[in-house]
Amino acid sequence: MTESRSTLPSPFLKRPAPRLLAGQRVLVTGASSGIGKAVAMAMASAGADVCVNYPVEAELDRAMEEVEEIRAHGGNAWAHQCDVSREAEVVAMFDRIRKEMGSVDILVANAGIQRDAPFESMTLDQWNHVLAVNLTGQFLCARESVREFRRRGMTEASRALGKIICMSSVHEVIPWAGHVNYAASKGGVMLMMKSLAQEVAPLRIRVNSIAPGAIRTPINREAWDTPEAYQSLMRLIPAKRIGETEDVARTAVWLASDEADYITGTTIFVDGGMTLYPGFEAGG
Ligand code: BGC
């Protein structure tokens, strides 16, 4: 093991989780950074083969580093570039998944972006781009997954025909001024997830969301990377610490596993209490 590997941030590869996902195959979208990266590592550590989806060619090196890291620790992963908002690219990604892994058992629809602006100056492009990646992207990947689960049929690896985890946000319920496009996309994810869960439950497909609060990633660096910002962020978090990507990744492994076999149509908030109306800690 090289020095750089032993100092890499994923605790999962250093201290492997129980192999809850042995023999299963996972697609994690937006997996070359942030929450998606931690989820991909954790899934690999739990015994799954992982397709590391990354959005643009510029992310190739990061995705390959991640794949190499997983392989160096005895896991199995490979990378595939695809813009999840483009139907033809998503369909092609599933063709490649069938070639590389035979099928897929778990989708983590994680890819997501922010393009923030005050409402009056928000461009149609900012609106469309966020909705396209965050909502349409999850729709396209979930639809191809359901089709693939049905084509493949039941296996010994899981009690479910397939599992879908939508990466939502506390902003599926918390309104967010200055981020109307983002909050609208996550509100959409909530009812897409629940409606789909209702539709496919009889097929033994489980569909759930994880709603992270403030997690330390590049997407929200401004909210945590100075002491002043961090202190102000703590006013919104009863648990008084920022979330780490591993907090979300652990939840994803468990939710995708048969340990959670009777759970469908639910959002699990991984937010240190951000959705508990922290303004009411005193008073009211
Ligand atoms: C956003 C972050 C934000 C967090 C809590 C997430 O969904 O992507 O930027 O810090 O919600 O507000």
Describe the structure.
The protein has 284 residues and is of the alpha/beta class. It has one domain: NAD(P)-binding Rossmann-like Domain (Rossmann fold). It has 9 helices and 7 strands, in the order ααβαβαβαβαβαβααβ. The chain has a 7-stranded parallel β-sheet with strand order 3-2-1-4-5-6-7, with helices on both faces. Strand 1, helix 3 and strand 2 (49-54) form a beta-alpha-beta unit. Helix 3 (34-45) packs across helix 9. It is globular and about 55 Å long. Mean pLDDT is 95; it is low at 1-8. Beta-D-glucopyranose is lined by residues 114, 169-171, 213-214, 219-220, 223. Beta-D-glucopyranose binds at residues 114, 169-171, 213-214, 219-220, 223.
Mean pLDDT rating: 95
Distance between the termini: 55 Å
State the order of secondary-structure elements, H for helix, E for strand: HHEHEHEHEHEHEHHE
> Can you tell me the number of structural domains?
1
Bound small molecules, which ones?
beta-D-glucopyranose
For CATH, the homologous superfamily is named as NAD(P)-binding Rossmann-like Domain
CATH-assigned fold name: Rossmann fold
Tell me the structural class: alpha/beta
* Computed Rg: 18 Å
How many H/I helices? 9
Largest sheet: 7 strands, parallel
Strand content: 5-15%
**CATH class label:** Alpha Beta
